[in-house]
C-alpha cells in the first residue's frame, strides 16, 4: 500500500476526524465552527485537523483572523479505488466458491 493511502486510512480511523470530514462535505467551515461539537481543547482538535491536512483530505486557508477548512474530495478517490479493487477481488473469489459448492453439490446428487 502506498504511503498516501496509509495516511488517508490513518486519518479516517478516528471518529472525530471522520466527523470533520462529514461536516466539510457540506461545505467549507471555520476551525472554530468545526471544533464546536467536540468536547476537547482547541489544541487537541488542531492535532486532528493537522493529521487531516497531512493526509491531503483537508486544506486550510487563513483569511484575516479566520482559518477556513475545505474538504479535498480527490484525496478520497485513492481510497475509493483501493476499496473497489478489494470488492472486485472478493466478489470474484466468492463467485468461484459459489461455483465450487454448486459443482460439489451436483456431483454428490449425481452419485448413487
TrEMBL record:
CDD domains: HTH_ARSR. InterPro entries: ArsR-like_HTH, HTH_ArsR_DNA-bd_dom, WH-like_DNA-bd_sf, WH_DNA-bd_sf. One of its GO terms (molecular function) is DNA-binding transcription factor activity. SUPFAM superfamilies: Winged helix' DNA-binding domain. PROSITE patterns: HTH_ARSR_2. Residues 1-109 form the HTH arsR-type domain. SMART domains: HTH_ARSR (SM00418). This is ArsR family transcriptional regulator.
Amino acid at each position: 500500500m502506498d504511503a498516501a493511502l496509509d495516511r488517508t486510512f490513518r486519518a479516517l480511523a478516528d471518529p472525530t476526524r471522520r466527523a470533520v470530514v462529514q461536516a466539510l462535505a457540506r461545505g467549507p467551515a471555520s476551525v472554530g465552527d468545526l471544533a464546536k461539537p467536540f468536547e476537547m481543547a482547541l489544541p487537541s482538535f488542531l492535532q486532528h485537523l493537522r493529521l487531516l491536512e497531512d493526509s491531503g483530505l483537508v486544506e486550510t486557508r487563513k483569511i484575516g483572523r479566520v482559518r477556513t477548512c475545505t474538504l479535498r474530495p480527490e484525496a478520497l478517490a485513492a481510497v475509493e479505488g483501493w476499496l473497489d479493487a478489494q470488492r472486485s477481488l472478493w466478489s470474484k473469489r466468492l463467485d468461484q466458491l459459489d461455483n465450487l459448492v454448486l459443482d460439489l453439490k451436483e456431483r454428490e446428487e449425481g452419485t448413487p
